[in-house]
Amino acid sequence: MKRGWYYLLTLFIVFIAHSGFSQKLPAQFRFSEDGRRLIIGGIDSEGFYDESSIKKIYLEFEQTDYWQQMLDNYDSKTDILASLSYDGQVLDSVGVRFKGQTSFKKTALSLKKSFSITLDYIKDDQNIDGYETLNLNNCYQDPSFLHEVLYLNLSRNHIPSARANYVELFINGVSWGLYPNIQQLNSQHAEEWFLDKDAIRWRCEAPDGLSSGSSKFGAGFSTLNYLGDDANSYAAHYTLKNDEDPKAWSYLMTACEVLNNAPLDVLEDALRKVFDVDGALWFLAHEILFIDDDGYVNKGGMDYYVYYDVATGRLRPIEYDGNSCMEIRNNARWVPLYKVNNTDFPLMNRLFAVPALKERYLAHLRTVLETSFSTEVNAKIDAYVDMIRASVLADTMKIYTNQEFEDGITDVKGFFSARKAFMTSNLLVKRTGLTIDSVWYETNGINFHAPDSTENVCVKAKVSGGQAEAVYLYYGDGLMGTFQRFEIFDNGLGCDEVAGDLIFSGEIPKHAAGTYVRYYIETVKADAVGTRTYAPAGAEHDVYVYRVNLADLAERSVVINEIMPSNKSSVVDQNGDFDDWIELYNPGKEVVDLSGFFLSDDPFELAKWQFPQGTMIQPDDYLIVWADKDIEQNGLHADFKLSLDGEDLILSTPDLKIVDEMFYSKGTTDVSYARIPNGTGPFTWQNLTFNANNSMVLALNAVSEVERLLVYPNPANDLLYIDVADNKNYSLTIYNMHGIKMHDSQFAGQCTIDVSKWNAGIYILRCGDLNCKVFIK
To answer: What predicted TM-score, i.e. pTM, was given to this entire model?
Structure first.
């Protein structure tokens, strides 16, 4: 059989690798290796907050009386200047001050103070690995040096807590000893956990100089209580950290009103629209299990934050302080439904009063017990201790003695065993729910086959372990946000094939091309209280996911055809500027009206730049958009630039349905990235064909490989063959649609890959500079 290069190009190749899965996920988001789950949290810290080694920070003060200045400035929170050195990097004019309340006032005779260091205090661009503020805590009430780093590490598996690691601080050449280094809750933290870094943030305590009300710590005021419709009533008890949005206080007031005033029988549905209810229940489970003395649950309006997530329109409590936790003396007092009857604490008083939410909370609490309180925690503690013991013993500034440090380690280990024993003996906690043996989805009867935009998806769950009162399927659009819920059945109707086989089934309706769909299962046991279980157990921050296929290129009215992410001397716009540019192409026979369409370089902000009314593209014609952030110029000028280091580019309709998208990796100045053949082929770097047919120019370093490559059979369901006609060595990688690498090798001549155990769907094959779409049945 003749293996012409055109056979591959016309039948197989469509470059859509990564496309929305690759570059812009928040740092705490990840897909499982099989691509079937989306997990938020639990990612090990790297760089400056890497927990596997002790970082060293050097402060140099020119002021001979720097210590007295910081003592004098404590109440006003005024920084003084110093220079800071870290890992060969020198930052001058950083701001330094003492921080903390009890940890400062109760250590008057000690030099071991807590420090706040503002790296961009004078120079806006100063940071360490992007972090601009450091919080070094002195371990007051924690002789073990373990509480904060350990607590925050474990809690990040389920809630958006801060990063934390260890540093040794030197001041003017003198070691000040070991410090837990706690990430600042700012826009960078929000960017790591949410789809919009501009989350509105409140520290839930009274601003400086204002009263916290009748409570010393603000309970009943800054514990998400409804204080009326006057923003000033809230401003007296919450410190707003970013005030760019004039509606900020209204978001807080609305959530507090629903939380406190909605009738209990409708509270869950009403509150989910304005408040992350599930996130709050995980938050409470952690504070109560770890006996977090400084937080929402105990003190109330003290040492916790609230974020308003702009992308989803919901409020969420955020863990902040972890030094005063894991105190076993409070074990028996902190029961699972702690403060359920205290109206000053509506998160417990109101949420636990709704049976479904109480049972959801208890299910989450069991999950934390199983994960964070397992026998593996002692190994984690030992690893920390092995790393820090020498530094702690050598620390002459520390608050506690060496013996207190050793005793503290024993106390921490004792806390985990005693707390787990206490909780698992509680009648509320020891109840068992149903077992969800497996969950999968089908499209047209094929397991785990990504649907097209015209297809519903049947989700199935195998349930055992008792009688089910109900089984629910939750699903939501996109990577974050609210879920819709409906009951699914084992009745042989709809997509449920056999009644009574303990497989419960229900259909998720069709979604637009390119849409992510998250889903999870909830079971309600037919017992006295309706005990809940979830699959995945970490729902809603750990959920199943699939993505709706994009339309084939042949069906698209307009495609992204060529781009140049770094234009220094190639083509000028109407003002004579060398700007980045994007070329669109209409492969059809009809005029396409692009009025209201969007272009974006961010898959989480599709509506970034909108085409003006009257924008038309003629059949077999091209349209140029200048990506220069200069929207005041005449013509089509997008309000974003292209990155030479690589990113996504998405074209979508006025109702945000994706028409075309692409991903490109690091490029070269004055070299374009274009489809060959024009309008249909894969992208490759080439000499530009600005506003013209790409096939008129030979690709750079790619044509010889294209002419010698054949991939067959396509679709494949057993073995996949890749042939080249010469004996040169080629790199071969295959990715699934979540950007997970499924195969990586070098080969010459022919390569055979067993794909029999791969999920059905679309994969991207890269051979040298060539990219092609492979279908697995």
So the answer is: 0.80
